[in-house]
Amino acid sequence: MEIVNYISKIIAWPIVGLVVVYQKTLSPDHGPRQVLYPYGFCQMYPTCSEFTRLTLLSEGVIGLPKIIKRLISCR
Questions:
Q1: What φ, ψ does residue 14 adopt, rounded to 5°?
Q2: Count of domains for the chain
Q3: Domain span at 10
């Protein structure tokens, strides 16, 4: 089972990279548009993109169901 977790985390790294690119470019809470929302745009803490990044780093792609559930509950 340990090898599955290791492989899952390796597969998650490119997805984490995409999330970071999204945060730096398009995200209203993390990117250049952050100045338009001084109190934050997302109602959840941490934001959905940050939750996705943290979940992928800790659980790998095994955490995708948790991420999808969070994104569905978001606006």
A1: -65, -35
A2: 1
A3: 2-73
Length of the chain measured in residues: 75
Tokens of 28: 């209203």
Closest CA to 15 of 54, 70, 66, 73: 54
Q: Tell me whether residue 15 is exposed, middle or buried, using C-beta atoms within 10 angstroms of its C-beta: 0 to 12, 13 to 18, 19 or more.
A: middle
DSSP state of 72: H
Question: Average pLDDT, whole number, for the chain?
Answer: 88
Q: Judge whether 31 and 47 are in contact, CB under 8 Å.
A: no
Alpha helices per DSSP H over the chain: 2-25, 48-59, 64-73
The closest alpha carbon to 16, from 69, 59, 66, belongs to 59
Q: What pLDDT, in 10s, does the model give residues 19-34?
A: 999 989 988 888 888 8
